[in-house]
Amino acid sequence: MSAPKSGPQSPFPGPRPYEAGERDRFHGRAGERRDLAALVVANRLTVLYGPTGAGKTSLLAAGLVPELERAGFMVMPLARPGGLLPRAPTRSTCATSTAPTC
Questions:
Q1: Taking the CB of residue 80, how many other CB atoms lie within 10 A of it?
Q2: Exposed / middle / buried, residue 97 (Cβ in 10 Å: 0-12, 13-18, 19+)
Q3: Would you say 9 and 43 are in contact if contact means Cβ atoms under 8 Å apart?
Q4: Alpha-carbon gap, residue 48 to 93, rounded angstroms
Q5: Cα-only R_g, the chain
Q6: What is the three-state SS of 12-80?
Q7: 101 contacts 73 by C-beta, under 8 angstroms
Q8: What are the residues whose beta carbons fall under 8 Å from the beta carbon of 82, sequence distance 6 or more?
Q9: How does pLDDT run across 1-20, given as a tens digit for each residue?
Q10: Averaged over 70-92, what is the pLDDT?
Q11: pLDDT tier for residue 44 given thresholds of 50, 70 and 90
């Protein structure tokens, strides 16, 4: 029995969304990422909706969150409706952050 061939890994994570750590493999949505970042910065409430499987969570986790962090914003963890709420930032988190929201 021969060992499986090892070739280049697929850039797609399969049937799950991209995560923040996979932002280097998340490509092709730069325009959407920039537009969404501009909307989030300009508006207190921004709603992102679309059909299941369209890549909304991937756009947020691997696109928008890193973009906002590079701009100096402190970004809360992502949460899903009906899921557990993310933890609020602590004083120690804010003490080391340059984000204007702390």
A1: 7
A2: middle
A3: no
A4: 27
A5: 17
A6: CCCCCCCCHHHHHHCCCCHHHHHHHHHHHHHCCCCCCCCCCCCCHHHHHHHHHHHHHHHCCCCCCCCCC
A7: yes
A8: none
A9: 555 566 677 777 767 787 87
A10: 76
A11: confident
d(CA 12, CA 10): 5
d(CA 94, CA 101): 9
Which residues are CB-contacts of 89 (< 8 A; sequence separation ≥ 6)?
A: 74, 76, 97, 102
pLDDT given at position 93: 58
Q: Return the structure tokens found at 8.
A: 């280049």
pLDDT beyond 80 at 38: yes
Residue with tokens 């969404």: 36
For residue 17, give the nearest of 56, 75, 64, 69 by alpha carbon. 56
